[in-house]
């Protein structure tokens, strides 16, 4: 027989204490809140227990005997009035916002919707279609974290399932799971490339939107969060959430960090026509933003129906508690925040002094991890690249677009290109931030793959079922002579060279380099630049028996090795003329300093610069020729009485003359300064 008493209002969620469990949930305007316990199958509600109200709107109850594995949910009773933004409905079983585990599948049903039938309260119980919150007790992470400095970070962005779903050296039972990411074959691949940090697309428990499931599609990327604490169950082999901890431990032992792409800007409950699954039924007006004076109208700065209201202290607390949990308990090393502008937006716009940003910076746990912002959303003033405070880093889409445009052959790009490869000082230096604030990338999960960037001039998203209207239109891409797949040696050779050009530019730019998984062996999505709903081979990487044989794999490895040899790329400050150690020199084809007017010559489609380390007495000479004509380049005098030696090129061979070189069309070249008898590998 179960016994219950008032219990404690802290911490929120379910907590095992002695022979019972304390439950606490925030629902400030509810008239009553009930804890509902279920049998081990999760199908039958076996007890409904009234919870006790504390000051401030927290409800709690302590139940014994009860232990780990107990299945439960909440029901909140109170006023239902859509015009007032109040959606209390005792017929809706709600997932605990602080649940650390769940059992059962989510099923789309009209029973989840309070507004059905339209304008009337739905009396249908949705428990049969809801997963159940599960009591769990999991120890904090005890592994040794790599603590890799930003100056040495190389990011590899990948999807948990897509990374290994077709990996021939991973057991079939592990493919597409967290456990596969710590398999020796996958780790050795990352180590071979020189990757230091694995950035995973969303792993918080998520569900697919109904408009996708009705078309036989799924939310493959995972940007539709159901729970901020629970690892996505489909990525587990045994349904034991500790598998995530095991994965992190193995990666850490290999010296590889784990960063999570997190979605705290909206939830799967969507807008007014969306389901009531958790937050809506507990404190709709507090957890979500609404239009002033119109509580029933959700602000949709995310494009997903709702926007989390981080101005509310309990919504803010939910996000911070979730972040700390993933660091302290699950062991992760940092986060990339999807649509991060939302997290720092007050009612009157973006605020770089927002409570969320201040709380993270002063938090003793979160101030120690890597923080990356996607600095844009579709809301008012949503584009905020360069506006986040230190120690935040930011995805730099201006870097992406500028490099793409240059290698595509666009004119008048040089001034902007020089800024981007020098660390985008125009974006970050104004608020005392350095070049390592910029996360540089050519491609990511969103948009064309690197191979598709050189294979398609137009997006081909018909498989998404939206008449090819979805996805970005401005991709700054090229097809190298034919749209789509080609076996023409001239086309394939040029495509390979252009991919190498982009990668060479990326790794020899100041800032933090990031590559999307599959870039190292030409993964294609068939021209789909918005493959968020494609859980199939268009997203699953096509591994070969030995991926190290691909020329791009070796090329990236060589680039990472070369980058590590020159401390200028790890320097946390911008290089100016008064720098005591480093200097950068922009050169024309005669090996002389670029003249002001030359920067603005539209037909000039090449850029040459020399990076000098006076302390170590060595230099890099980097040449980019995006034009379709060869460039006769005169070598500048190497510093320190050295000579120039070819280190890397995107071409198969080089025609180097003693004092000059013929730079092939659409190619890139790197030379290192070599003193007598000394070479740089």
From TrEMBL:
Record's Gene3D superfamilies? Glycosidases (3.20.20.80), Golgi alpha-mannosidase II (2.60.40.1180), Immunoglobulins (2.60.40.10)
Gene Ontology biological-process annotations: glycogen catabolic process
Name one molecular function that GO assigns to this entry.
amylo-alpha-1,6-glucosidase activity
At the top level, the lineage of the source is Bacteria
Keyword annotations of the record? Glycosidase, Hydrolase
Keyword Hydrolase assigned to the entry: answer is yes
User: Which family does the record assign?
Assistant: Belongs to the glycosyl hydrolase 13 family.
Looking at the keywords, is Hydrolase present?
yes
| SMART domains (alphabetical) | Aamy
Q: Which PANTHER family match?
A: GLYCOGEN DEBRANCHING ENZYME
Q: Identify this protein by name.
A: Glycogen debranching protein GlgX
- Domain (Glycosyl hydrolase family 13 catalytic) ranges: 187-563
- Give the Pfam families listed for this entry: CBM_48
